[in-house]
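WARN no homologs supplied; continuing
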Amino acid sequence: MLAETLQQMKQDGIRRALAFVTSAYSSYSGYRQYREEMVRAQKEVGPDAPEIDKLRAFFNHPGFIEATEKRLRDALQEIPAAARQNVQIVYIAHSIPVSMANTCDYVHQLEEVRKLVAARLGVGNDALVYQSRSGAPGQPWLEPDILDYLHEVKARYLASAVVLAPISFISDHMEVLYDPVVDSETPSR
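OK structure emitted
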């Protein structure tokens, strides 16, 4: 509906627009592809299509970091006092193919968020893991997978409690809520 929306904007006399991509991080499917779609829609609308400026990736924006920190502080307060001595924060991001990750700053940006938030919280026991791997079984995707990682934490007793922090999703949806609890034998996780 992007071309139709731009056409309506053109008819309404709107010459400039600002696009907010809800992915905080840079990757092809999470960011650049949206820009390509905007350019395609502008060409379809033709001359005088509204100009579209895209907001920058906001992974390290102070407001995003502060909100992430606040949500984690709230979650940490819910852990019983006896289990707080060795809490591990597990930052969860959407997995992408390794070939895609090698052509963008996605992992670097996720690591920056992890470090910024961990420093603000004063927590050193943390990890970055991935969920929602899909695609061809032979294609390598970013790892470790959340389910595999949680099994390892439990088997090796690496933490007294674990707080999951989905940092690449700015809203909860089925993917965030469902993936971490699926049986590890499920092929598309």
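The beta strands are 16-19, 51-54, 87-94, 126-131, 161-166.
OK
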